[in-house]
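Notes, Module 5: Reading structure tokens.

Key idea: the token line is not a picture. It is a compressed description, and you learn to read it the same way you learned to read a sequence, by spotting repeated patterns. We will look at two proteins. The first is printed below with its tokens.
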Amino acid sequence: DWQTDMFFKGEHVQELDIDQNVIFEWRSFDHYKFEDSYSGGYDYVHLNSIAVDYDGHLVVSARDLYEVTKINRLTGEIIWRLNGKNNEFESINEPVLFKAQHDFRPVYGKPNYYTVFDNQGYNYARAVEYLIHPENKTVEKVWEYRHSPDWYSRAMGCVQRFLNGNTFVDFPERNLRIVEVNEAGDVLMELMSHGHTNYRCRRFDWYG
């Protein structure tokens, strides 16, 4: 796809059946404009996570738009847009939501609750949980974890919520730093590896 005499990198979201036939496809060029981006580069969207929401539709994170978009899994139409230049929501308790975010995920068993790794550019990084009210288009921060002193991660990162309420957070850039915290923000586990990085971490039970 060409626009204003420059080449821009778009994104495709596809669902395949068991025989690898494409049964659903969504193209960023059909929905996002270049001027929506904060990067100014050819990779103006930079999708970095996709998840199936509690109602079966899709939520995708567009890093360079500072936006999370909910997509109708049947029609491809946009259901809502959170944050960024096309934000549809009023924030109840935060003047600034997330920037350059990663790993936007629904919280299991809690409809309309979502976790995200908020990179916040060069300022700091954090894990955040939001409650979204799609009917009245409001969003509310209900939980966050920021390390003290602040860690930052300009790129990458992840948040994993466990069924017991604990949260696993990966601050990956420059020096890999992983923590597991409880709902009060108390650190239960911390792992650091100097000089190494990791795009995204997950914790699983191990059997062997």
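Here is the second protein, with the sequence above and the tokens below, as before.
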Amino acid sequence: DYTVENITVRNCIARSHCNGFKIGTASHGTIRRIRFEHNRTAASRRVYRDLAPMPTDLTQWAKVPAGVPKYLTGAGIGAICVECVDGGIVEDVVADDIEIAGFQVPFFVRGGTRSGRKCGTPPNNKYILKDVVISNIRGRAEQAVASSITGVKGCRPVNVVVRNVDIECVGEGENASPFAEPGPEAAGKYPEGTMFRDYHLPCYGLYVAQADLVKLENVKFTVRKGTVDARDPVFVSQK
């Protein structure tokens, strides 16, 4: 067991091809009173813009210039990620005043109950994810994967506040595919912001499922100019 607490990351610029600011996945102990304040985060590829400029057509992302690692030219996974999936307690986490660019998913909050890991989960360990504030977030998503606040039966996020968020999303157009919420099989997926990308979620901005006391205040999700999306910006599951 361990305790990680009273940590502040302020006035920083973080670049990653994976995640910008993240708690988890491993969370066997207690993680609390964590602050990400007044920061900027961007995908690694932004550093190499002159070397390998990104095309605006997303279908061209796979065409990487010779000699340039693919992860340097693709989008990052998640800008802000708060996870409790291996037991333990994650509580009192604030991400405030953060500008994001180059990530597929602006923010991702996930409760889970993974098992069978080599490091093991202590017997009778708790699975608690609560008191998370995501506020004053601005930027744009780089792929049509919605932000999400989700959990499972054994670990539901509790008391999550999303406030003053302005995100430009990728419009999927008048997609004829039926909308689909993730089924039980999704619980076993590796917990990361893109874990629902194989589903045609019923929203393009924020998906909420198996979470309690989620509060949205002044939240704005829009699609890019010249695109449309048949789905709602926010969807709260009744499952």
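Summary for the second protein:
- The longest strand covers residues 88-111.
- The chain has no helices and twelve strands.
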